[in-house]
């Protein structure tokens, strides 16, 4: 890449929410810090439960483990910089650093999409082929599929970075977003971005819609299988094993597909509204997912209650001894 390609841009500045008044910077940084703190604590709790309870070492929970790791890494990639921008007015990021962040943002997003595909596969086999489930879905199967997901997910984001990095950036260096992503960066290029944005859109749709197509097929098959169950109680019990996954999948896919499609078919939002929507679908799922795991997944809920009861039992014993 020649130096002239971006001779006037040696660093980018992450603006965040352009319409936010300075007097609200402290509030914004506090809210974002609390989101990051809750995300980190919630997901670390799931990691600790998984590490200390061998009852969770089953295929479905290994899938959740990979999703937890991806959520933590995504939040750590995006949130500290925007928190620093509002807390310490440190919004500058190096030219190369911005592209590294862009790669990681799209990489972890793609990993999540593939992990959700594996999650749907697990539920599909479990409900539609229950007798074959132990033979088809083993811990080793999940390890192979998940490792493949982490490796294959590198291709798309890497291609996007390779195509965007050499573009001429010679005008504004202000990223109208809370982190560096493909659309926010290539919008600043001093060239027609159509030839670069369309292939990126195709890559994004393949990463999103490929897994989503199977997810839709799998849950339609699950619904058909559930309707064949004679008892109402049996139907509800079977559907309850999928409810948590359905919530997680909906939180991930629906807003993303909407934003990608709207930005490429000409639907316009105000910059602040668009950023708010992106932040909601990027940061809320990693924060909410641990709650879904705990309240919608029987074994994780049981493991959490068992650990909670162990921690409170000594306190109750001490109170009883004092009363004596």
From TrEMBL:
Compartment list: Cell membrane
Its membrane topology: Multi-pass membrane protein
Record flagged with keyword Transmembrane: yes
Gene3D superfamilies xref list: Rhodopsin 7-helix transmembrane proteins (1.20.1070.10)
InterPro entries, alphabetized: GPCR_Rhodpsn, GPCR_Rhodpsn_7TM, Olfact_rcpt, Olfactory_GPCR1
Chain ranges of the G-protein coupled receptors family 1 profile domain: 42-293
Pfam families tied to this protein: 7tm_4 (PF13853)
Chief localization: membrane
TM spans (from-to): 24-50, 62-83, 103-121, 142-165, 201-227, 239-261, 273-295
Keywords from the UniProt entry: Cell membrane, Disulfide bond, G-protein coupled receptor, Glycoprotein, Membrane, Olfaction, Receptor, Sensory transduction, Transducer, Transmembrane, Transmembrane helix
One term of GO molecular function: G protein-coupled receptor activity
Cellular component, GO, one term: plasma membrane
Family label: Belongs to the G-protein coupled receptor 1 family.
Name of protein: Olfactory receptor
Source organism per UniProt: Hucho hucho
């Amino acid at each position: 890449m020649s130096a002239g390609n971006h001779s006037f841009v040696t660093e980018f500045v992450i603006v965040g929410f352009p319409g936010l008044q300075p007097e609200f910077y402290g509030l914004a940084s506090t809210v974002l810090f609390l989101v990051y703190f809750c995300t980190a604590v919630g997901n670390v709790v799931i990691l600790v439960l998984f590490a200390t309870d061998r009852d969770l070492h089953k295929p479905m929970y290994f899938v959740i483990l990979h999703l937890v790791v991806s959520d933590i890494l995504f939040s750590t990639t995006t949130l500290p910089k925007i928190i620093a921008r509002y807390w310490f007015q440190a919004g500058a990021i190096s030219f190369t650093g911005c592209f590294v962040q862009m790669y990681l943002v799209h990489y972890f997003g793609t990993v999540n999409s593939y992990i959700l595909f594996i999650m749907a596969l697990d539920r599909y086999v479990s409900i539609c082929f229950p007798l074959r489930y132990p033979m088809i879905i083993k811990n080793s199967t999940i390890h192979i599929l998940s490792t493949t997901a982490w490796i294959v997910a590198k291709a798309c984001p890497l291609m996007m970075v390779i195509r965007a990095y050499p573009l001429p950036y010679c005008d504004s260096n202000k990223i109208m977003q809370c982190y560096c992503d493909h659309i926010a960066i290539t919008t600043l290029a001093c060239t027609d971005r159509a030839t670069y944005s369309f292939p990126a859109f195709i890559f994004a749709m393949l990463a999103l819609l490929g897994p989503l197509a199977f997810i839709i097929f799998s849950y339609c098959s699950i619904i058909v299988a559930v309707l064949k169950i004679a008892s109402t109680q049996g139907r509800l019990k079977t559907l309850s094993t999928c409810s948590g996954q359905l919530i997680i999948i909906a939180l991930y896919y629906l807003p993303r597909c909407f934003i990608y499609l709207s930005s490429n078919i000409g639907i316009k939002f105000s910059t602040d509204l668009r950023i708010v929507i992106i932040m909601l679908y990027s940061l809320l799922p990693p924060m909410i997912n641990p709650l879904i795991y705990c309240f919608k997944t029987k074994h994780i809920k049981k493991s959490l209650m068992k650990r909670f009861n162990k921690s409170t039992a000594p306190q109750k014993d001490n109170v009883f001894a004092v009363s004596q």
